[in-house]
Amino acid sequence: MLTKPEHGWSCIKIGNWNERCSYLDDVPYLLLDAMESACRTWTPHCVKLDAEGWEYIIVFDMYETHIISDNCDKGFVYTSVECDLNKLSLEMIEDIRNNINSWAAWVPNQSDDEVNERKKDLSAFCDVFERRIKRGGTQ
Predict the structure, then answer these.
(1) Whole-model pTM?
(2) 90: confidence class by pLDDT, cuts 50, 70, 90
(3) Whole-angstrom Cα distance, residue 17 to residue 94?
(4) Which of 20, 74, 83, 116 is the least crowded, having the fewest Cβ atoms under 10 Å away?
């Protein structure tokens, strides 16, 4: 779902939709928070991300994900993807873990201590969320 972040950029892929994301947003935390909230409550939760030139909103629901893109050239574009949110969440958790050092350093101008603390926080969030999904503790 998430490519390895490099130079302040990454890509998000959900089904056949994909788009870039920028360091202007704290992408891993925003996605983890929205997806965990949707899984826990069984109600849609969204995140708005800046692609530097346009923005998009991702609405996570248990069996569908909806993306509303605001592209200056095309206006609003709506995409809907059928997907199991628990599976998508586990994919995202794995992608964050596979590149934990890069995601920890995602926010610019951090000290080494701040990067290390962020790495611990991201890892803990992923661990708790994954355990909840695997034990069926959603809703």
Answers:
(1) 0.93
(2) very high
(3) 19
(4) 74
